Amino acid sequence: MVDAGVVGPNPEQFEEFARLLLDAVTSRNYALLAALVVVVLVYLLRKFGGRFVPVFNTDRGGAVLVLGVSLAGAVANALAAGAPFSLALMLTALQVALTAAGGFTIIKRILFGSAAIARAELAGALAAGQVAEKAAAIAVLEQLDSRGGK
């Protein structure tokens, strides 16, 4: 399942994604290239791995997957650069992974999951509907009042 409300690079929008990837390679923007590789890996794992690991198709599973891939990438990058493995490295990698994965969204989806998010969206829609109904009722009453005064 791919989230239709995703903001940012989306491998399903192939032309735009390919342009971003090509720009990252030609401009030697390795940070963007790494981020796009994470997007592709997570996309592929969710799209095809979800058949074998159904939790990948949930919001929480997708969030944990993004966090895990980002964390693994940050650790691998630091180790490849010659940094020794340590607690400080893991904390820095976690900070990078949270930032790369959109910390707030990831934490929101891990802690609250899609059910709470859906309930909050439904409550907001209901509240908006009630406000719209009241506004419409007021408009009707104002129209009736203005006709009655003529």
Helix tally equals: 5
Q: β content, as a range?
A: under 5%
User: What pattern of helices and strands is seen along the backbone?
Assistant: HHHHH
State the shape.
Answer: elongated
Average of per-residue pLDDT values: 74
The helix content, as a percent range, equals over 70%
Number of strands: 0
Structural class: mainly alpha
**Measured on Cα atoms, how large is the radius of gyration?**
23 Å
Cα end-to-end separation: 59 Å
Task: Please mark out the parts with pLDDT under 50 across 5 or more consecutive residues, or reply none.
Answer: 1-8
Largest sheet: none
Question: How would you describe the overall organization of this protein?
Answer:
With 150 residues, the chain is mainly alpha-helical. Helix content is 77%, strand content 0%. It is built from five helices and no strands. It starts with 13 loop residues before the first helix and ends with a helix. The relative contact order is 0.07.
Distinctive features:
5 helices; elongated; disordered N terminus; 150 residues; mainly alpha
Brief overview, please?
Helices cover 77% and strands 0% of the residues. With 150 residues, the chain is an all-alpha fold.
How would you summarize the topology of this molecule?
Blueprint: H1 14-26, H2 30-49, H3 59-80, H4 87-100, H5 103-148
Helix pairs in contact: 1-2, 2-3, 3-4, 3-5
